Amino acid sequence: MPTPKLYNRENLAPIIEHYREKGSVQTALDLGMTRHQVDYAVRTAMEMGMDVQRRRPMQAAIKERIQRIEGRLHKELTDGYVLVGSDCHYFPGVVSTAHRAFVKLCKEIRPAVVVLNGDVFDGSTISRHPRIGWDSKPTVAQELKAVDECTGEIEDAAGTHELYWLLGNHDARYETFLAAHAPEFQNVDGFTLKSHFPAWKPGWSLFLNEDCVIKHRFKGGIHATHNNVLWAGRTTITGHLHSQRVTPLSDYNGTRWGVDCGTMAAPYGPQFQDYTEDNPKNWRSGFVLARYWRGRLLEPQTVTVLDEEAGLVRLGTGVFEV
Which domain does 48 fall in, by range? Predict the structure, then answer.
């Protein structure tokens, strides 16, 4: 490699071409450079007016990730309950009312399918967002322990029924961080999130029969539930927005529902305290209960926390305590 003082367009070209294809981490590994040297070369090339814009083969990357975690899962169901919780953001030392209610219903109704619909793991210390002041966040090991304890309770309550964990953007932080900072450890045990939770089948989405899809996120904004079911063409159960609502859409084909699960965490819990700056949140804590009867999907029901401290939860017109 030429020394920085001797950089010119000719000897920078192969470095920048490599960077545009593979990024700074892989360029440093392939060319025997440090990250600092690669970054310096990129800055020098920019000052010379060279094109350093990354080429990101997004479709290929997405396809590879989908294949690796069996992106689209399928389940045929004639009769039975489907329990869907989302955005747990499990946090050390914190067990939400929604989580306790989820475990309680698992024991009582014995659902045929249990789904954790993304952002079960938070990954606060490996976020792309910078640290706020001197805030204290749990380590990855502490978070994994909290997730293991809570998912273990669900596993015990659900018994032998099928368990699905659909990937959320927070869950993806685990492997994204490792892939960026320790690519040499690819395929090493423990370097995938799913390897820590073998009881749960991972995927991007779960298709139930021909009329329902469950996935972490699709459309955004205040009309997301309406737009989700409109664009998907089938009942769509998502999370991500924490808003918890059910929006019907009827046409010549009948009625479908756009469903937001809400969050299994307490909206004003410690997971969200700093980065939301204690602003009011149009979030609701709870989850979703769906039922198939004679192969027909009935209208999904929200299970909503009424009082976090008192442990009061609403299901339909009834209230129970956990």
Answer: 4-56
Mind listing the pLDDT tens digit for each residue in 93-120?
999 999 999 999 999 999 999 999 999 9
Quote the CA–CA distance of 162 and 212 in Å, as a whole number: 17
**Torsional sign, CA 14, 15, 21, 27:** positive
Contact 100, 322 (CB under 8 A): yes
User: Both 313 and 185 in a single domain?
Assistant: yes
Q: Dihedral angle at the C-alpha atoms of 241, 247, 250, 254, nearest 10 degrees?
A: 90
SS3 281: coil
- DSSP state, 94? B
DSSP, collapsed to helix, strand or coil, labels residue 5 as helix
Residues ≥6 apart with Cβ < 8 Å to 242 = 87, 260, 262, 263, 267, 281, 283, 284
pTM, two decimal places: 0.78
Cβ distance 251 to 245 under 8 Å? no
Look at the chain and report how many structural domains it folds into: 2
With contact defined as beta carbons under 8 Å apart, do 263 and 212 qualify?
no
**What CATH number did the domain enclosing 291 receive?**
3.60.21.10
Report the phi/psi class of residue 77: left, alpha or beta, with left for phi > 0 and alpha for psi in -120 to 50: beta
